[in-house]
Amino acid sequence: MRIPRLLTLLLLSLGSAGVIAAPAKSEDMKQLAAHAGCLTCHSIEAKAGGEEPIGPPWAEVARKYHGQKDALDKLTQTVLQGSNPYQSHWKNKVTGLAMPPNAVAINEANTRKLVAWILSLDAK
To answer: What is the pLDDT of residues 64-119, one digit of tens each?
Structure first.
Protein backbone atom coordinates (compact mmCIF):
# COMPACT_ATOMS: atom_id res chain seq x y z
CA MET A 1 0.00 0.00 0.00
CA ARG A 2 2.92 2.33 0.70
CA ILE A 3 4.55 1.93 -2.75
CA PRO A 4 1.56 3.26 -4.77
CA ARG A 5 1.42 6.31 -2.52
CA LEU A 6 5.15 6.97 -2.99
CA LEU A 7 4.84 6.44 -6.73
CA THR A 8 1.97 8.93 -6.87
CA LEU A 9 4.01 11.49 -4.94
CA LEU A 10 7.00 10.94 -7.21
CA LEU A 11 4.92 11.39 -10.38
CA LEU A 12 3.26 14.51 -8.99
CA SER A 13 6.61 16.04 -8.07
CA LEU A 14 8.10 15.22 -11.49
CA GLY A 15 5.11 16.73 -13.23
CA SER A 16 5.32 19.95 -11.23
CA ALA A 17 9.07 20.16 -11.86
CA GLY A 18 8.48 20.18 -15.61
CA VAL A 19 10.04 16.77 -16.19
CA ILE A 20 6.72 15.39 -17.39
CA ALA A 21 5.12 18.00 -19.60
CA ALA A 22 1.86 17.76 -21.42
CA PRO A 23 2.07 18.70 -25.09
CA ALA A 24 0.88 22.20 -25.85
CA LYS A 25 -2.60 22.40 -27.30
CA SER A 26 -2.86 24.27 -30.58
CA GLU A 27 -5.80 26.38 -29.43
CA ASP A 28 -3.97 27.41 -26.25
CA MET A 29 -0.89 28.39 -28.25
CA LYS A 30 -2.93 30.33 -30.81
CA GLN A 31 -4.62 32.21 -27.98
CA LEU A 32 -1.25 32.94 -26.33
CA ALA A 33 0.14 34.17 -29.66
CA ALA A 34 -2.87 36.40 -30.26
CA HIS A 35 -2.67 37.85 -26.76
CA ALA A 36 1.06 38.60 -27.15
CA GLY A 37 0.51 40.27 -30.54
CA CYS A 38 2.44 37.67 -32.56
CA LEU A 39 -0.33 37.26 -35.14
CA THR A 40 0.03 40.89 -36.17
CA CYS A 41 3.11 39.92 -38.19
CA HIS A 42 3.05 36.11 -38.35
CA SER A 43 0.62 33.45 -39.54
CA ILE A 44 0.74 29.73 -39.02
CA GLU A 45 0.69 28.78 -42.71
CA ALA A 46 1.73 30.89 -45.70
CA LYS A 47 -1.14 32.96 -47.05
CA ALA A 48 -1.98 33.01 -50.73
CA GLY A 49 -1.89 36.30 -52.54
CA GLY A 50 1.73 36.94 -53.41
CA GLU A 51 2.20 39.71 -50.87
CA GLU A 52 5.27 39.32 -48.66
CA PRO A 53 4.35 38.86 -45.01
CA ILE A 54 5.88 41.02 -42.28
CA GLY A 55 7.21 37.96 -40.47
CA PRO A 56 7.66 34.41 -41.74
CA PRO A 57 4.80 31.93 -41.38
CA TRP A 58 5.48 29.59 -38.48
CA ALA A 59 5.24 26.46 -40.63
CA GLU A 60 8.21 27.82 -42.62
CA VAL A 61 10.07 28.61 -39.39
CA ALA A 62 9.51 25.01 -38.27
CA ARG A 63 10.84 23.66 -41.57
CA LYS A 64 13.86 25.98 -41.57
CA TYR A 65 14.92 25.03 -38.03
CA HIS A 66 14.00 21.33 -38.26
CA GLY A 67 16.62 19.19 -36.55
CA GLN A 68 18.68 22.11 -35.20
CA LYS A 69 19.46 21.36 -31.57
CA ASP A 70 19.75 25.00 -30.53
CA ALA A 71 16.58 26.14 -32.32
CA LEU A 72 14.42 26.42 -29.19
CA ASP A 73 16.97 28.56 -27.33
CA LYS A 74 17.89 30.64 -30.36
CA LEU A 75 14.31 31.44 -31.35
CA THR A 76 13.25 32.09 -27.75
CA GLN A 77 15.97 34.73 -27.50
CA THR A 78 14.96 36.22 -30.86
CA VAL A 79 11.36 36.58 -29.68
CA LEU A 80 12.39 38.16 -26.39
CA GLN A 81 15.25 40.38 -27.63
CA GLY A 82 14.29 40.97 -31.26
CA SER A 83 16.31 40.31 -34.39
CA ASN A 84 19.15 42.16 -36.04
CA PRO A 85 17.87 43.96 -39.16
CA TYR A 86 21.30 43.62 -40.79
CA GLN A 87 21.37 39.83 -40.49
CA SER A 88 18.05 38.94 -42.09
CA HIS A 89 17.89 35.25 -42.85
CA TRP A 90 14.46 35.60 -44.44
CA LYS A 91 15.57 37.78 -47.39
CA ASN A 92 13.06 37.95 -50.22
CA LYS A 93 10.55 36.00 -48.13
CA VAL A 94 9.34 38.73 -45.78
CA THR A 95 9.17 42.52 -45.87
CA GLY A 96 12.61 42.91 -44.33
CA LEU A 97 11.50 44.48 -41.07
CA ALA A 98 13.40 43.29 -38.02
CA MET A 99 11.48 41.53 -35.28
CA PRO A 100 11.07 43.88 -32.33
CA PRO A 101 11.85 42.74 -28.77
CA ASN A 102 8.77 41.22 -27.18
CA ALA A 103 9.82 40.60 -23.56
CA VAL A 104 7.20 43.12 -22.43
CA ALA A 105 4.40 41.26 -24.22
CA ILE A 106 5.33 37.67 -23.32
CA ASN A 107 7.49 36.17 -20.58
CA GLU A 108 10.29 33.68 -21.16
CA ALA A 109 8.38 30.61 -19.97
CA ASN A 110 5.45 31.30 -22.31
CA THR A 111 7.85 32.18 -25.13
CA ARG A 112 9.57 28.80 -24.76
CA LYS A 113 6.19 27.01 -24.85
CA LEU A 114 5.11 28.94 -27.93
CA VAL A 115 8.42 28.41 -29.75
CA ALA A 116 8.36 24.68 -28.92
CA TRP A 117 4.85 24.48 -30.38
CA ILE A 118 5.94 26.42 -33.49
CA LEU A 119 8.86 24.03 -34.00
CA SER A 120 6.47 21.07 -33.65
CA LEU A 121 4.49 22.31 -36.67
CA ASP A 122 7.11 20.68 -38.91
CA ALA A 123 6.01 17.28 -37.65
CA LYS A 124 2.37 17.87 -38.65
So the answer is: 999 999 999 999 999 999 998 888 778 778 887 889 999 999 999 999 999 999 99
Q: What residue numbers bound the domain in which 94 lies?
A: 24-123
Q: Does 94 fall in a domain? A: yes
CATH number at residue 33: 1.10.760.10
* CA within 13 Å, CB half, 79: 29
